[in-house]
């Protein structure tokens, strides 16, 4: 992290005791996480670990079952548009663009939380509206320059290659002038060159004073980019620390490989299920057991549970 002795880091995001249950499934369990100004924080974990669910709790898409999320000292209301207005922007794991709108129009949509012109002004297209529209366009074009998409401003979003659609999502998120940007798998589907460029783009975003929390499966990308990394496993925060610490933690490797380790989140439940299944198998006729029953040797792997 590039801080000087005179810089005091401010807590931008403070998530405390965030739990999200879906029926019987606890997708996120009592997770604490902070992001400070000037930081890029990574969130890793196997498939189904609860990373996206956690993002959804942070951004008001889900109302957490328990816990609290604050942005710069103020508790965030669990409503996506209010969270955006407060200064938290995000991109989605499954790209959500307006595919039949142009690249520029997509960024303008992201800008609307920052325009003060109301409905009547927009309908009557008065001078205030025209001025606001011109300013929004200017800012949107700046963001397209920044993300390297300016030459494609008039292209339909659906005609962009996948990597550029991801960049456009970032440009649209930046249009709301956030203080914190949440990125859910920003390099998924990118080739190595695009991934490198995405890394540079995220550093540049951080250098503009926007704190970043990023989910990614590409470990080289995460460990290169982040000041701090937290690893979720089965909804619980297993490890948090510098890239070096997390990289060297055997439990993180074990969690990804699905091998057992002492005190693994969910290990007790898995052991109980396995014991119950073994008991059921012992008391079931052999032909019933052999009929397409799945292996029950999973330990701490990321298999999804049914709510
Ligand atoms: N709306 C929902 N209703 C019920 N269960 C859900 C819902 N959203 C997520 N889950 C479950 O919560 C768990 C965590 O899912 P989530 O998508 O957060 O994982 P993830 O860490 O983002 O995984 P991936 O790396 O594959 O994107 C999974 O078991 C998933 O099936
Ligand atoms: Mg996800």
From TrEMBL:
GO terms for cellular component: plasma membrane. Residues 278-289 have a biased composition (Low complexity). It holds the Pfam family ABC_tran. Residues 13-259 form the ABC transporter domain. Residues 269-307 are annotated as: Disordered. InterPro entries: AAA+_ATPase, ABC_AA/LPS_Transport, ABC_transporter-like_ATP-bd, BCA_ABC_TP_C, P-loop_NTPase. Keywords: ATP-binding, Nucleotide-binding, Transport. Residues 290-307 have a biased composition (Basic and acidic residues). This is ABC transporter ATP-binding protein.
């Amino acid at each position: 992290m590039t801080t000087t002795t005179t810089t005091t880091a401010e807590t931008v995001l403070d998530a405390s005791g965030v739990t999200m249950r879906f029926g019987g499934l606890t997708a996120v369990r009592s997770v604490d996480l902070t992001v400070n100004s000037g930081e890029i924080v990574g969130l890793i974990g196997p498939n189904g670990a609860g990373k996206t669910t956690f993002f959804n709790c942070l951004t008001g898409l889900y109302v957490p079952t328990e816990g609290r999320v604050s942005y710069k000292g103020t508790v965030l209301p669990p409503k996506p548009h209010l969270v955006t207005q407060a200064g938290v922007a995000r991109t989605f794991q499954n790209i959500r663009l307006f595919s039949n709108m142009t690249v520029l129009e997509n960024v303008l949509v992201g800008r609307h939380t920052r325009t003060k012109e109301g409905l009547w002004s927009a309908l009557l297209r008065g001078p205030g509206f025209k001025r606001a529209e011109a300013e929004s366009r200017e800012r949107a074009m700046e963001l397209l320059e920044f993300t390297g998409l300016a030459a494609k401003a008039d292209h339909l979003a659906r005609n962009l290659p996948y990597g550029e659609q991801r960049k456009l999502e970032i440009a649209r998120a930046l249009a709301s002038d956030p203080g914190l940007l949440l990125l859910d798998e920003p390099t998924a589907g990118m080739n190595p060159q695009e991934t490198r460029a995405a890394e540079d783009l995220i550093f540049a975003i951080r250098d503009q004073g926007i704190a970043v929390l990023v989910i990614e499966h590409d470990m080289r990308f995460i460990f290169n980019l982040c000041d701090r990394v937290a690893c979720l496993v089965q909804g619980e925060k297993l490890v948090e620390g510098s890239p070096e610490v997390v990289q060297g933690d055997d439990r993180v490797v074990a969690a990804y490989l699905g091998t057992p380790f002492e005190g693994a989140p969910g290990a007790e439940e898995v052991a109980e299920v396995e014991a119950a299944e073994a008991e059921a198998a012992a008391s079931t006729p052999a032909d019933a057991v052999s009929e397409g029953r799945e292996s029950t040797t999973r330990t701490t792997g990321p298999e999804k549970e049914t709510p």
